[in-house]
Amino acid sequence: MIKIQILSATVEERGGTVQRGERKGETYHIRNQEGYVHNGHAFPERFKISLGDRAPFPVGMHYVDPACIEIGEYGDLRIGRTVLLLNEEQAVAYLREQLPESILAKVTGSAKPARAA
Description:
This protein is α+β, with helices and mostly antiparallel strands. It has helices at residues 88-98, 101-108; strands at residues 3-6, 11-17, 27-38, 45-50, 60-64, 69-71, 77-79, 85-86.
């Protein structure tokens, strides 16, 4: 899973009125939060997360929710416009559901817990 670090719950907001094009005269309001993606480079890279009307993500480590992975119009793989993040507990629960027991055992040193009947 792709690891995202949030260092601040601060939200950058800006808005105004569209000045040209088909949407001229419409108002807009943009809310972004800063995050850092750990993508295998020497240092994490800063990026903006578009929040829309959602609350800011809390400070800490998060993981990209696979639900925001989509296939583009030309068959390319991409992350959707709305980035969804899982906290550590949610990421672990997702992996427990998705990984085969053999891989889960290698990663965690134990297999999936048996489900009650």
